[in-house]
Amino acid sequence: MKDSKDIVKELIQWYKENARDLPWRRTKNPYHIWLSEIMLQQTRVEAVKPYFQRFLQTCPTIEALANTEEDTLLKLWEGLGYYSRVRNLQKAAKTVVDEYGGALPQDYHALRKLKGIGPYTAGAIASIAFSLPYAAVDGNVLRVMSRLTADERDITLASTKGAWEEELSSMMPTGDEGNFTQGLMELGATVCLPNGNPKCEICPVRKYCQAYRKNAVLQFPVKSPKKERTKEYLSVFFLVHRKKIALQKRDGKGLLSGLWQLPNCNQEKALPVALSEWGILSGNIKDMKAQKHIFTHIEWHMSCYFVEVENENKDFLWLSKETVENEYALPSAFKKIWQEGCSLLED
DNA sequence: AATCCGGGGTC
DNA sequence: GACCCAGGATT
């Protein structure tokens, strides 16, 4: 790549002077780096901050993580999304304990074999924690490099990402591996922003940027459109019996697997039928505010009902507000309904 | 190569 | 509403 040596040098210099002070940048503990990189997958820095510290208080070491109850881990991950991340994290922790004596292997290919560690995360841990010459290519890096070189290749293609992984690994500066990796991502996160507001006027590598030179920054990166979401229509129930609220564990597979939810069914089913199939003697049904929740590939349109029922069935758990909030992982999709239901409970 | 898997910020 | 994101596993 043209001017690559100079670009690397400028970028590292800029990063050293402008790096944000983040909790996981104050440590060289590979486990902490690992945890932060998993939490940061598809997730913004500000969202991760409160979770990172709290998680480490409960799981201060890889061995502690390996031995923590899964429900506890899900509660720690509650609201962060992509819950398979924390299951895979624990699987990997057990592997690290069993096969590596509780310390992460200082080897890219060994890291890559651990559950939940893909090309990006392996590169991030290798370069940041172990000063190994492996690039970490994420969405930020692809955007930065696409603009810097006015690269027309579609960044959603695996081939494009693979090419940048090789190219950037070959550019990796000895002694500044972690700074290079983090500098690229920091530039993407704070300067080379997506959409309409890249801050080219403060960019440390502007003079090398081909897209800037062509006055075409917003034409990069090139990416193919993504598929549209399907809509699902649900009836969701806040069922109450003697101040206890019904909670149901979701299936072990698929969306939000293993988390807890308010009982719900397809909107096509009549409400009294749904309740009777659950063995609930229906009481007074009050309408609650309708809710919409958007996932990556699904939209939930929820009609919501507050129902004071006459009996507790055995398919659900009937729990107090406090118990649920302290111990059960409830996905964000249900949070607003939960809040409204609890306030109705007060009356 | 396509699909599945959360959630929140921004314009 | 549209777009984006510090991705990886599964098929």
From TrEMBL:
Catalytic activity: Hydrolyzes free adenine bases from 7,8-dihydro-8-oxoguanine:adenine mismatched double-stranded DNA, leaving an apurinic site
One GO term of the biological process aspect: base-excision repair
Keywords, ordered alphabetically: 4Fe-4S, DNA damage, DNA repair, Glycosidase, Hydrolase, Iron, Iron-sulfur, Metal-binding
Cofactors: [4Fe-4S] cluster
Cofactor mode of binding and number, as noted: Binds 1 [4Fe-4S] cluster.
Keyword Hydrolase listed: yes
Superkingdom per UniProt: Bacteria
GO molecular function, one term: adenine/guanine mispair binding
Enzyme Commission number(s) of this protein: 3.2.2.31
InterPro entries in the record: A/G_AdeGlyc_MutY, DNA_glycosylase, HhH-GPD_domain, HhH_base_excis_C, MIG/MutY, MutY_C, NUDIX_hydrolase-like_dom_sf
SUPFAM superfamilies: DNA-glycosylase, Nudix
CDD domains from the UniProt entry: ENDO3c, NUDIX_DNA_Glycosylase_C-MutY
Keyword DNA repair listed: yes
Function field: Adenine glycosylase active on G-A mispairs. MutY also corrects error-prone DNA synthesis past GO lesions which are due to the oxidatively damaged form of guanine: 7,8-dihydro-8-oxoguanine (8-oxo-dGTP).
PANTHER family assigned to the protein according to its UniProt record, in alphabetical order: ADENINE DNA GLYCOSYLASE
Protein name: Adenine DNA glycosylase
